[in-house]
Design brief:
260 residues; single chain; 2-enoyl-CoA Hydratase, Chain A, domain 1; four-stranded mixed β-sheet; alpha/beta; 11 helices; 10 strands; globular; Lyase 2-enoyl-coa Hydratase, Chain  A, domain 2
Amino acid sequence: MTYETITVERRDTGVAVLTINRPEKLNALNKQVHTEGVAALEDLKRDDSVRVLVITGAGEKSFIAGADISEFAGQTPVTQRNLFHEKTFFNSIDSFPKPTIAMVNGFCLGGGNELALACDLRVCSGNAKFSQPEINLGIMSGGGGTQRLTRLIGEGRSMEIMLTGDMIDAETALKFGLVNHVYPAAELEAKTMELAEKIATKAPIALQLCKEAVKFASRSNLDEGLRREVDLFAICFSTEDKQEGVSAFLEKRKPNFKGK
């Protein structure tokens, strides 16, 4: 499939890279990006050669500098609500069954931060800047920011970011737990790919079930979470990869997981 606002690259390491490709607009999210992003994720979900997805923005200045504000003009409450009740890029990333990594270069603002929050892991360059600046436009986050950010870094820190609209730098984001790693800009891609390729060597079914269990932890109580974990753990024992992993351990060799 041909896209106009994104690119998709499949690498022979089991890693795919989806790039928001609107550098002239600092990769701002418009309706077409959402539509194409959702379609690309559906395609990547069905591709067994893809085990890990990295999402980034084109150019060095910006990961995603928020929503395309020009599309807000003329929107009514009903049309805006309907738009976000459709299958959005944010929710498609959140529900994507394979591990996702946001590779954040430069500005990560508003909808860009919400997109990064929908990913499983976030790796950024030292010059990255994070913000939810919607309050400065007289509105608030609508792409999951108030919910996912609060679950990730806690209510107090999330509240300050939401109410002030201030930017935080990469080191602050790391201290808050918003990102997993910070690297010099020149090393960002190599370090992110190193992480993605490491994850891609693991058993695909176990990765999917582990991801499901971890996400369920923040969306359930402890008893429900523990029961879900046991059920998913048991499912692993029905896979060929479980047998391969145990055999490889006993035979002191590297496992060859096939996602079966």
